[in-house]
Amino acid sequence: MNGYLLDTNVVSALRRPKVFPQVARWVRSLPDDCMWVSVISMGEVRNGIERKLRSDLEQGRVLESWYETLQPFYGDKILPVDLEIAERWGQLAIRQPLAIADGLIAASALVHDLTLATRNTSDFEPHGVRVVNPFL
After folding, report:
1. pTM
2. The pLDDT of residue 95 is above 80
């Protein structure tokens, strides 16, 4: 596979292109068929929405409406976690501590030979993940 795995912070930034125009420009410069999202990022976004629904129902509903567009938009570009990814995460976590979600995203990028698009490049570089920061 060639292309980019979008980290959760990139997916979230795309919801607000006026706040993060550099991210929107970067994504627009890419062919649609080279962008992937981990099911882990989908879960992280969903978790953020659930927390927002508890603190600000109106904004939570806005986010929920946006979230409902993600699955149809990314479709088969949402990567599941399988045994190979789980095993790679297990190997990565030994070298240097890494949060479970970040570790599974890193392992997904490595297994699928994708470059990880993230704001947090320093979290992933020590694990041998190719990274790009579209926020710059």
Report:
1. 0.93
2. no
